[in-house]
Specification:
The chain contains 8 helices and 7 strands, in the order H-H-H-E-H-E-H-E-H-E-H-E-H-E-E. It has 220 residues and is of the alpha/beta class. The protein has one domain: 3-Layer(aba) Sandwich (Rossmann fold), CATH 3.40.50. The structure holds calcium ion. Calcium ion binds next to loops.
Length: 220
């Protein structure tokens, strides 16, 4: 027993997955394909995908943002959990990795639920706000370039309805956030974002030590 969050040993992590993962075959295949690609470390873990799908189900979400799509695992996890008329607005700038994403979205039969926007995410988010979409999204997953995290957080908060949820990935950054000697721009940006969210009275929060650290922020 522990009054603190348990440190997962490899054996315990294997057990956690064995007794709880229900990964759809198409998601497993996407994970396998991504494993050999550049940037494979950017893919979320299967239990995190399943957790986000559960959140979306709990909320009865219909309209979601996927900021930093890569090969599409998170967007696919969420799309599979959405109702038939649900929508994922996926944002990325890289054609190669999102081409893989599109192949798997089609294979999973959810291509119609996902709109991909290939452009800098801050531009697409600003356009959505300008087009009157503020306050209309249920859920946003932020997992793009870390240096713009604070911008994506603010824009997502604007686009979310009251009671909507933002999930921010990599907030523990492989443990680098507590390395006082690490003044890398990405590390610094994540520390700053964590401080901003912690102090932000507009949201209720929890930092979940799943994957590389996932902060949940619910718009009040
Ligand atoms: Ca990530």
């Amino acid at each position: 027993m522990s009054t603190e969050t348990l440190n997962l040993t490899p054996a315990l992590y294997t057990y956690l997955q064995a007794v709880s993962l229900r990964e759809a075959p198409v998601l497993a295949k996407l994970r396998e394909t991504t494993h050999t690609m550049p940037g494979a470390m950017m893919q979320i873990s299967p239990e995190q995908g399943q957790f986000m799908a559960l959140l979306v189900e709990l909320m009865g979400a219909k309209k979601t943002l996927d900021i930093g799509t890569y090969t599409g695992y998170s967007a696919l996890s969420v799309a599979l959990a959405l109702p038939a008329d649900g929508k994922v607005i996926a944002l990325d700038i890289i054609a190669e990795s999102t081409a893989v994403a599109k192949t798997f979205w089609a294979e999973a039969g959810v291509a119609k639920k996902i709109d991909l926007h290939l452009a800098p995410a801050a531009e697409t988010l600003a356009r959505l706000i300008a087009e009157g979409e503020a306050g209309t999204f249920d859920f946003a997953f932020i997992d793009a370039d870390k240096r713009n995290y604070a911008i994506y957080y603010e824009q997502s908060l604007t686009l979310l309805r009251q009671g909507g949820l933002i999930a921010i990935d990599n907030v523990l950054w492989g443990g680098r956030v507590v390395d006082a000697l690490d003044d890398d721009k990405d590390t610094t940006a994540i520390r700053l974002l964590n401080e901003i969210v912690h102090q932000d009275e507009r949201v209720s929060i929890s930092l979940i030590p799943i994957g590389d650290g996932l902060t949940l922020a619910r718009k009040r």
